[in-house]
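Dear Dr. K.,

Following up on our conversation at the group meeting, I've run the structure prediction for 1-aminocyclopropane-1-carboxylate oxidase1 from Abeliophyllum distichum. I'm pasting the input sequence below exactly as I used it, so you can double-check it against your construct before we proceed with anything downstream. Let me know if the numbering doesn't match what you have in your notebook.
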Amino acid sequence: MEVKATGISVYDRISELRLFDDTKAGVKGLVDSGISKIPRIFVHEDRVKHLEEKSNFKNSHFNVPTIDFDGIYTDMAQHYEIVERIRDACEKWGFFQVINHEIPLSIMNQMIDGVRGFHEQKTEVKKQYYSRDVTKGFIYNTNFDLYQAPATNWRDTISCVMAPNPPDPKDLPPICRDIFFKYSEYMMKFGHNLFELLSEALGLDSSHLKDMGCTEGLFVLGHYYPACPEPELTYATSNHADSGFLTVLIQDHIGGLQILHQNQWVDVPPMNGAIVVNIADLLQLITNDKFKSVNHRVLAKKIGPRISVASFFRTHFREGNESKVYGPIKELLSEENPQIYQEITTRDYLTHYYNKGLDGTSALSRFKIL
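The predicted structure tokens came back this morning:
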């Protein structure tokens, strides 16, 4: 929508956002309507300014680490080698892929299919779940930061807090209800094991991060990225780092995920059966910058839909423990490695993160000790 002000056309972004939001049809609704050009709310200025610039990840010599967990609990020599590889990946990359992780491929595929199934239902069926109330048991919407971000991302999302207090099953839509619960069981088990390995990689007792509460909360998001008629003008997900302690991602074969490594955008290629792990902000904070929460993005594409499922290990607004205080782990501090961050509550952090939106800046910078 454009309004006239003293004879000059002025773009009324908020009105456009409200009109789009009120349809409750999401990005998929736009695609289903047959649009050939994307609405202005989705245009990212940095994409417009650099249309002639080609993404450099294809020419990059970097490859995101892949770690094979085979034998991790049966061969101690292998166990120590895997822990060392995890330490190296967390310090240098903040991202790695895992194979032989004991989550059945059938479960991963069913989860991808469940997310796809929800988003491809009729709009009238989906509308009953459309909300921006983060306290609800199950939410469907487009961009959690729709009204905060400088530009809208080309994706729709469903989300649900699965731990520590699982939702009432009736709050979840029938089409993906069972697999959300089954997948979350496997994810919690994997997360507990992974946080033990991360604790060892920090030189701590294997239960250290678990005892801090890092494994208590699980927030599961199912992203749906429709094919985009003008992918060169927008992002599927813009440049950001994740909230919480850790993110575990599964993705289909479409691709588009990139991470920022040594000032280059590096592709994270889909690998059948692999899961992607990345360090999130609160883990960088409690490790006093030893482990890195790295910026990443997803490119929009003319092909699609792309489906991904992100599992965030973190507390949430409605869990009642968001007043818990986190700061750098004392055992990791020394004269040579002084405390970098303040002690903060998860509510402080998440409130700042949600209000800021995905604008490419670090949410951690606000909490640094000056």
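Two things stood out to me. The chain has a mean pLDDT of 92. The longest strand covers residues 156-163.

Best regards,
J.T.
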